[in-house]
Specification:
Layout lengths: L2 H9 L9 H4 L3 E11 L8 E15 L4 E7 L12 H12 L7 E7 L9 H17 L7 H12 L5 H6 L2 E7 L2 E7 L6 E7 L5 H6 L7 H19 L5 H4 L6 H4 L4 H12 L4 E3 L6 E5 L2 H14 L4 E5 L8 E4 L4
Parallel strand pairs: 3-4
Antiparallel strand pairs: 1-2, 1-11, 2-4, 2-5, 5-6, 7-9, 7-10, 8-9
Helix pairs in contact: 3-4, 4-5
The structure holds L-homoserine.
The site of L-homoserine (HSE) has 12 residues, from helix 7.
């Protein structure tokens, strides 16, 4: 659905095809959503990579109330009411189809770290949109562009939600008719390593450090590197070090995450293509093979002042899935 059509749908929602609350009762779905790393160095708000670490949840339409259980990451921390991000995304998707969110029971098993630049909020939003899609089927069909639009409306930028929805390497861009994406397969040699510190970083704070304008030569620098990065990731991993250079965001954010900045410099001096993962503070190393990945993890273990968790993660090529779940 286009932005204009979505706005119009909000004003006069059509319930023609949307299943009634009675028809929804008892429907139950299972949703699985990958972690993501956005930006990948030069591709600010544009490039993203899906990684094989997942949040999973089951949602069932019940007779009354709202029941939420969270296990794993976020347990005891995230709200268990209608402000829960998955529930908000579900309600947003139902509203676009002219219905209030019915009573649900939601059980989440999370393993994507929160506040670390691995797309946990994007994953929660995508989980909610996909859960709603699964419950509304088969009466309602939501197109891939429609899913991306719903998720981007809540996330604000498409570079995490696109790979979370579709998997692989995604290029996302915004048009007057809404966000769009192109999915690409990554060269099989690319071996991502994510290094996760104990502390969190607020995306809002990171974004507040961005300048309103940048020198034209810096913009040209990033255009060249982000174009090269697509080629390096799908075809020529030996170019990844040059292709992950950036002048648009990382230096502006460095003061808010000094250890991330210092470790990225050390890794890059040693020849490893290291960048801030999303808005940080985690580091993504786009190693060219598993032995380089091990070298990079060792370097961080030996030189970091604080504890960093090393996660060697495969690229996820499937993206988010929703399937009917068995009854209670
Ligand atoms: N592109 C976004 C940013 C990703 O760097 O702010 C984090 O949500």
């Amino acid at each position: 659905m286009s932005a204009a059509a979505a706005a119009s749908a909000e004003a006069t929602p059509s319930t023609e095809a949307t299943p009634s609350r009675d028809a929804l009762l008892g429907r139950k779905v299972h949703v699985k959503v990958p972690a993501t790393s956005a930006n990948l160095g030069p591709g600010f708000d544009t490039l993203g990579l899906a990684l094989a670490r997942y949040d999973e949840l089951e949602v069932e339409v019940v007779g009354s109330g709202l029941e939420i259980e969270v296990h794993g990451v976020g347990e005891g921390e995230v709200p268990l009411d209608d402000s829960h991000l998955v529930v908000r995304a579900m309600a947003h998707t139902f509203a676009r189809h002219g219905r209030a969110l019915p009573p649900i029971r939601l059980v989440a098993h999370n393993s994507i770290p929160h506040g670390r630049g691995l797309g946990s909020s994007g994953a929660a939003i995508v989980a909610g949109v996909m859960a709603a899609k699964g419950l509304l089927e088969p009466e309602v069909e939501i197109s891939p562009d429609g899913l991306l639009e719903l998720a981007t409306e809540l996330e604000g930028h498409p570079d995490n939600v696109a790979p979370a929805l579709f998997g692989g390497l995604t290029i996302a861009w915004v048009t007057p008719d809404g966000p769009r994406h192109k999915k690409l397969m990554v060269h099989r040699g690319v071996s991502p390593l994510v290094l996760v510190p104990e502390h969190e970083m607020s995306t809002a704070l990171a974004r507040s450090l961005q300048p309103q304008s940048v020198p034209h030569e810096d913009a040209v620098f990033n255009v060249s590197r982000s174009a090269l990065l697509v080629a390096a990731l799908i075809q020529s991993p030996e170019l990844l070090l040059a292709a992950t250079e950036d002048k648009l965001h990382q230096s502006y954010r460095a003061e808010a995450m000094p250890e991330t900045d210092r470790l990225i410099r050390r890794l890059r001096e040693a020849g490893h293509p290291a960048v801030i993962s999303g808005a940080g503070p985690s580091i993504l190393v786009l190693a060219s093979d598993p032995s380089e990945r091990a070298d990079a993890a060792r370097l961080v273990e030996e030189t970091a002042d604080t504890a960093w968790q090393a996660l060697p993660l495969a690229v996820d090529f499937l993206g988010a899935t929703v399937t009917p779940a068995d009854g209670p």
